[in-house]
Amino acid sequence: MTQNDLNVQEHTHADHFLHQLRSRTADSHKRLEELPVSTSITSPNITKASYAHYLQLMGAVIHQTESAIFPKLAHAVPDIDNRHKSKSIIADLKFMGYDLKSFPPPFTKNIDSEAFALGIMYVVEGSTLGGRFILKNIQQALGFEQEGTQYFSGYGNKTGSSWKHFLDALTSYEAKNGHMEEIIKGADYAFTAIYDHLKSHSGHED
Asked: What CATH number does residue 84 fall under?
């Protein structure tokens, strides 16, 4: 088998893995996206209060991801130290005159598996990619530019390449270690846990 054959085989396996990951989490992903608090940030009628409330809710998700998930993935995701977003949420809230709110941890499961943690990070990093679409709505509806939009700006013009680098790390990990099922379980759990978190606190706007 030539090196080219090996490269094709690896690429095909990575495509299969990512297809399984996306298709088997599609239902929980869609359910999260259809929550009223989720659709509110893509509405042209979004208010500053509803935007701030969403950031407060996601602040709890991001904080727990960075404090509990990131330390488990230092070897699996080489650039993980560049993927912190809590400061961006705090800055956006401060610009609008809001503070972070205290919520119970969204992820209640004891996460001791690196593969499961990678599945959770797949969901969190994927939301950064999708945030570019939301960014345009925030800018148009609320008139914000750089200030007030740091979180949804993601990694700026490097957002696309940062997502690709994460997928490369994810597929490399799976190709080397296996654990496809555990990664998928982690991603599905993350979509469901974030859904439960947003739904149970979505009526608590201040």
From this structure: 1.20.910.10
